[in-house]
Specification:
Oligomer: homodimer
Radius of gyration of chain A: 30 Å
CATH topology of the largest domain in chain A: TIM Barrel
Helix content of chain A: 25-40%
Distance between the termini of chain A: 55 Å
Largest interface: A-B, 44 and 44 residues
Low-confidence stretches of chain A: 171-175, 273-285
Structural class of chain A: alpha/beta
Number of helices of chain A: 19
C-alpha cells in the first residue's frame, strides 16, 4: 500500500516503503507478518540460510546436495515474488577477502543466489556492502553476472558515510567516503544500467554538498535504520530536520524507503492509546507491526510534502528525457510547436515590459502624439510578439508601425488571419522573407526577436540578427539587447547512460535539450558566451572561445562529472531580463528546458582539484557548432568533442 | 644521402639527417645550399614569410592579396618537395595567447600554411612548440586540421625538458615537464596517428627514466641544437656520453635527426687540414656546409653502432606488429609453425639439460643398467622433444621407454616417419590421442611437455597437464615443473593506436603476441600466476586472481600506461629454466614474443601514485580467459576488461 495518494502527484509517482527482514524459511509467513493490514509494501529478505558455506557441503554428495534456499518458488505466486520481495544476498559474502576459501565460497554463493532470484523473477536484489576499501574481485564477479541478467536490478548497499578529515593524508580520507567505493565499483562495471544503489542512512549525515552528489547517481532505495530515528516529546520516532530533508529528496527522486533494524522506540502507553484511537489495545497490539510507528512517520513525511506545482506536474514526463535541439533556421516549426511556445505567457509579459520601456525611451511623452515608432518583429512566427508590441504601444500611448518578418510560409498564413481578425491591417505589414535577405523599405527604431535557444545563441540568433541589423537605425534598439550562455558541471548517470546506449561517438558529441532532474549540480553556473545587439563594429565575429575553471565546494568530496548543463540569460532591454539560469531564472516560464553537453569519458574530480573546461563556438559557411573539452584534472583530460562539428551542428 | 649503409641493418632501416633552415624566398637555392655534395638529406624550412600577419593585410584588397609563401609550387618538382622539405610552421603563432587578435591571426596562418603544405604533398610539417603550459585552443585547431589531412604527419615540436624539483608543489612541477604538455595535446587530439613528436634536444638532458618514456611515444624527429654539442680535444663538435646514448636510442627507434642552430665550433686550421686530407683548403671551404662537422659527427655515431644481431634482424619485420595468440588446443598447428619452432635450438638444449638431470635423479648410476625410465612426451608435435629425450638418455647412459602422445593427426604422420627414419621403433610408442582423454597402459616416471604460451599458461598448459598427470607416477616428474607469468606496465602509443584502429571494444579486450620495440617499460616485471606440476591436491583449481601494485621510479615523471606486456618464466627441472621475462630471459631463443594486454582507456600516472592492476584467470566449461582492470589511480579506474571472456578466450 503506497504511502498515500497525493494531490499533485501522478499515480506513477506513488512512493512505497519496504522493510528489511531476517532469514526465515517460511517466506509466506514472513510476507504476511510484514505486509498485512496496511503495513509495509515489500520485504527485503534473505534468499538463503546465512549459515550456508559451499566449501562445508559434503563433496561426495555430488549433485544431490541442494543449497538451503528459503522455500521453493511455489510457495508464492510469481507476482507475489516480483512485487513484494527484494532478494537480500547473504551479507557474509566477501569477495575481496584475503582468505581464498572465503573468496571462493562467496563467489559460488553470490552466483547461486542471483540465479535463484532470477528464477523467481524478482525485480531487485540487495548486494551487501563491500567489506573493505578494495572491491575489484566483487565488482568483477557482479560484472560477470550483469552481462547476462535480464531485467533484475542489483542494488549495491552503500553506507551513507563521509567523514570530514582535516588531515592532509589523502589516502585515509578516501577510505572514509563511501561514494569513492561506489564510484570504484561502478567504473569497474562500466556504469551498467542494472547496477544501482541502496543507501544505508545512518544517524550521522554527511555535509550537504556531499549528500547532493547522490542525486546524480542511480539511487533506488534508502535503508533507514531505526537507530537513526530520534524520539519526539511524546515518545514517538521522528527524524532530524536534516534527515527529513534528505527523505524529502528521496521522495522527489523516486527512491524507495526501507525500514531496517529492531524497534527501539518503546512507545509509551499514552502514545499507543492516541494512535489506536481508543480501539482495544490488546487486539491492536497483536496485529500491529513492531515497526509500524516508523512506517507511519515516513508516511507522515510524505503526506506533508507540498504538492507539485502544475508546471512541474506537466513536465514530469520530460524529466531526464533527452531531446534533440530544434533547428528552427533550417527546418520550419510545426503548428504544435508554435502552439506550445505561445502559451508561455510569462515570456510575452517580459517582452511587453521591455518594449514599453524602449518605446518610452525612444519617444518622450510630449512627442507621443506626433512620432511613430517603426518596430520590426523578425521571426514573427504566428504573431505573439506582434501582439505584445501592440499592447505595449497601447499601454504607453505610443504610435507604432510594425513589420512582421517571417521566413516560414506556413506561419505567415496564420499571421495574415491574425492581422485580419484583430483589424491591424493599417499598422502591421507582413513580410514573408528570411530576415537575412530581406531588403527593408525603411529602417527600424526597434528590432524585436525571439530566436534564443536553451543555450542562448544555439539557434543562431547572432547570425540572424547580424543579418537583420542592416535595417536597424544606428541608434536603434534590439530586443533582446544581449544574451549570455551559462554552464555548470553535473553528475548525471541517467543522462550519461542514455547517451551511451547509442554506442557511438556521435551521440556523445551532441547537445540535448532536457528537463534535468536526477542530477547533482556540482558548482554554480558560470557565463560562457555573450552576444550584444546591435553590433556595428567592423571586425565582429560570432566565433567564441571560453576557458572556465570550476572549483567544487571542498566538502563535496570526490564527484563524477558526466557532462555540463547549459542555460541562458537574456537582457531584453535595460533591467528586463528573461532566462533559465537557475539562480536568476524567470519564474513560471516553460519554453526552455536546459541543454546538456555530455562527456565521452566522465571525469572524476577529487577535492581541491579544479575542473577546467574549454568551450568553442565555431562558424563555417553552412553551419555553426560547438566544441568542448576538459583539460584539468590532467590525468582525465578528454578528447576535443565534436571537432569540425562532425557530430552536431546547427545549419545556417 | 643516408648516414651510411650498415651491415646488419635493413635498407629500410637507413637513417637520414636533416637541417633546420631560416626563411628564404628562394627554396631551390636553399635546397641546393643544404643538400649538395653529400651534405644533409632534407631541410626543415619555413613556408611563409615570418613577418606575415593576416590582420595586418589590407582588408579592402578583398581576394587579391596573396599570403607571402616561400615560392610557388612550381619551383621544385613534386618529388623534391615531398622527399626533401619538411614544412616549418611559423614559429610566432600562439593559439593560446591572451590576445584575441594574435589567436585569430595564428589560427588563420596555421590553416593557410598546412593547406599549402598539403598542396605541396609534403610528408610532414613541424608545428611550433606551445608557448605556455596551456594548449587547448592550439590542440583544438590542430585537431580540426587532422580530421581532414590525407597523409601528412604533423610533428609537434617539444623541448626535451624535465626539471627535477624537490619542491612538493605539484603544480609548478607539472609545468616543468614537457611530456605533460605533449600528453595534454595528444589527449585532446585523441591519440591521432598523424600527430607525432619532434623533440628539441637541449644541452641539459633529463634523467634516464624520464627520457625512457619518449620511446613509447610517436617521436619522429629529434632536433639537436649546435649548442648541445661539446668540443673535443681537437676542437670538433661531439656529444656527451648521455647524449650519445640518446642518439643511439633514436637510431634504434627510426627517429630522424635534424641539426639546428648556428655553427658555433670554429674549427681550428689543423682540424680542417686533417679533415680535408690535404686537399686545397680554400676550395674545400667554399663547398663545405657550415654545419657539416655536426653532420659528420652524427654519421660517425651511426656508423659506430653495433650491427643488429641476426635474430633481431630476422625479427625486424615483426616489431610492434600485433598477432593473435595461437589456439593450439582448439586448432591444429600447421607444418610451417612446427618448422619455425623446431628451429629454436636453445629451447631444446634447455629441455635436454633438464631431462638429463631428471634421469640421473630418477636412476642412480649403479642402477642405470637395470632400470628403464618411462618418459611420456605429451604434445609431441613432430618429435623435437622425443629427440631431446633420447639424446638425454644417451648422454646420461640411462635406458628409456618413450610414449609420444600427440592429438594432431597431421603431426602424427611426421612422427611415424621420424621414428622409422631414426630407427627408434623399439623405444618410442606413438599415441595419436588427446592427452586429456588417453588411457595410458602404464604410468610414467617423467612427463615432458612444451605447451607454454608467451604468458605461460595462456595456451592451457595447466588444463592439459591436469589431464596428463593421471598417468604420472605419484613421485613422477613433470618437465616443466612450474611456470610463472609476468607483467609490466608500458607506454606503447603505436600498439594502442593499432588496437584502436579496429574501432571496437573486442580488440581492446584481446591479448596480442607482439615483438615489442617502440615501447617504454615503466616498471620492472612482477609475477602474476604460478602453476606447479604435478599437482595432486584435492581442491586444486586453475582459476587465479592477482592484485599487483607498480611503483614507477620517482624520476620518471608522469607517464601514460597504454597496457601491459606479459612474459613467462618456466622451471623445467631444478635449476634449469626457460623464459622470456627480460631480466632472466633465456638467450637466443625465438619461439616466443611477448604478449600485450591493452587498456581501453590509457591510464595517466603521476609521480608518487602507484598503479594497481588486477588480473584474473577464469575457467568455464569450454574456455579459459583473462579479465583485467586498473583500480588505482582511482580517477582513471578502468572497466573490467573481457568480462566472461566476451572478447578473447582460449578454447578447451
Amino acid at each position: 500500500m503506497p504511502l498515500g495518494e497525493k494531490a499533485g502527484w501522478e499515480k506513477s509517482e506513488s512512493r512505497y516503503c519496504g522493510v528489511e527482514a531476517d532469514f526465515h524459511d517460511d517466506i509466506p509467513q514472513l510476507l504476511s507478518l510484514n505486509l498485512s493490514s496496511g503495513s509495509f509494501d515489500f520485504i527485503v529478505a534473505p534468499l538463503m540460510d546465512p549459515t550456508y558455506r559451499p566449501s562445508l557441503m559434503e563433496k561426495d554428495k555430488g549433485g544431490s546436495c541442494v543449497p538451503p534456499f528459503a522455500g521453493s518458488d511455489l510457495v508464492l505466486s510469481p507476482s507475489q515474488w516480483s512485487s513484494h520481495v527484494v532478494g537480500k544476498i547473504s551479507s557474509w559474502i566477501d569477495l575481496d577477502s584475503e582468505d581464498e576459501i572465503v573468496r571462493m565460497d562467496s563467489e559460488t554463493t553470490l552466483k547461486q543466489e542471483i540465479a535463484w532470484a532470477h528464477h523467481l523473477s524478482l525485480q531487485a536484489c540487495l548486494l551487501p556492502s563491500p567489506k573493505g576499501s578494495s572491491c575489484a574481485n566483487y565488482a568483477r564477479c557482479v560484472n560477470q553476472i550483469l552481462q547476462s541478467l535480464n531485467n533484475m536490478q542489483l542494488w549495491l548497499r552503500v553506507p551513507l558515510v563521509k567523514i570530514e578529515e582535516d588531515s592532509m593524508d589523502e589516502k585515509s580520507e578516501n577510505l572514509l567516503d563511501s561514494w569513492e567505493l561506489w564510484n570504484s565499483f561502478r567504473l569497474l562495471c562500466e556504469h551498467h544500467t542494472q547496477l544501482s544503489i541502496a543507501l544505508d542512512v545512518l544517524s550521522e549525515l554527511p555535509l550537504a554538498n556531499s549528500l547532493g552528489r547522490w542525486f546524480g547517481e542511480p539511487v533506488r532505495a534508502a535503508l533507514i535504520n531505526t537507530n537513526s530515528f530520534l524520539t519526539n516529546a511524546r515518545g514517538w520516532p521522528c527524524l532530524s530536520k536534516r534527515h527529513q530533508k534528505l527523505v524529502a529528496g528521496f521522495f522527489n527522486h523516486s527512491v524507495q524507503i526501507i525500514i531496517t533494524g529492531k524497534p527501539i522506540h518503546a512507545l509509551p502507553k499514552a502514545g499507543l492509546d492516541l494512535a489506536a484511537n481508543h480501539i482495544d489495545d490488546n487486539s491492536k497490539n497483536m496485529q500491529r507491526h513492531p515497526l509500524k510507528s516508523y512506517l507511519d512517520y515516513v508516511a507522515y513525511l510524505f503526506q506533508r510534502m507540498d504538492p507539485l506545482p502544475e508546471q512541474e506536474r506537466f513536465e514530469l514526463g520530460y524529466r531526464d528525457f533527452l531531446q534533440s535541439p530544434l533547428q528552427p533556421l533550417m527546418d520550419n516549426l510545426e503548428a504544435q510547436t508554435y502552439e506550445t511556445f505561445e502559451k508561455d505567457s510569462m515570456k510575452y509579459i517580459q517582452y511587453q515590459r521591455a518594449i514599453c520601456k524602449a518605446l518610452v525611451d525612444r519617444v518622450p511623452d510630449n512627442e507621443a502624439a506626433v512620432l511613430t515608432t517603426v518596430l520590426m518583429v523578425v521571426g514573427a512566427g504566428r504573431g505573439p510578439l506582434v501582439r505584445a508590441s501592440l499592447q505595449a504601444a497601447e499601454e504607453t500611448g505610443r504610435s507604432l508601425k510594425v513589420y512582421a518578418v517571417e521566413k516560414n510560409p506556413n506561419a505567415v498564413v496564420t499571421l495574415h488571419s491574425l492581422v485580419k481578425l484583430e483589424g491591424w491591417e493599417n499598422i502591421v505589414t507582413i513580410v514573408s522573407c528570411d530576415m537575412r535577405s530581406w531588403e527593408a523599405p525603411e529602417k527600424a527604431d526597434i528590432l524585436v526577436s525571439e530566436l534564443l535557444g536553451s543555450f542562448g545563441d544555439n539557434e543562431l540568433s547572432p547570425e540572424c540578427l547580424d543579418g537583420a541589423q542592416r535595417f536597424l537605425k544606428h541608434d536603434g534598439i534590439s530586443i533582446p539587447s544581449s544574451y549570455t550562455s551559462f554552464v555548470q558541471p553535473v553528475t548525471a548517470s541517467k543522462l550519461y547512460n542514455d547517451v551511451k546506449s547509442h554506442k557511438d561517438v556521435v551521440h556523445f558529441e551532441t547537445a540535448y535539450v532536457v528537463k534535468v532532474h536526477n542530477i547533482a549540480r556540482l558548482a554554480p553556473c558560470q557565463p560562457v558566451f555573450k552576444f550584444d545587439h546591435p553590433n556595428f563594429s567592423a571586425n565582429k565575429s560570432n566565433q567564441r572561445y571560453k576557458k572556465l575553471k570550476f572549483d567544487l565546494p571542498i566538502d563535496t568530496g570526490s564527484a563524477m562529472v558526466h557532462g555540463f548543463v547549459g542555460y541562458f540569460d537574456a537582457t531584453l532591454y535595460k533591467d528586463v531580463h528573461l532566462g533559465i539560469e537557475p539562480s536568476t531564472a524567470t519564474p513560471n516560464m516553460f519554453s526552455w528546458f536546459a541543454i546538456f553537453f555530455p562527456l565521452r569519458l566522465p571525469v572524476c574530480l577529487h577535492p581541491g582539484t579544479p575542473l577546467e573546461l574549454h568551450f568553442w563556438r565555431c562558424c563555417g559557411s553552412t553551419k555553426v557548432w560547438y566544441e568542448w573539452c576538459v583539460t584539468c584534472p590532467s590525468s582525465t583530460s578528454t578528447p576535443i568533442h565534436n571537432s569540425n562539428g562532425r557530430s552536431y551542428w546547427v545549419g545556417l
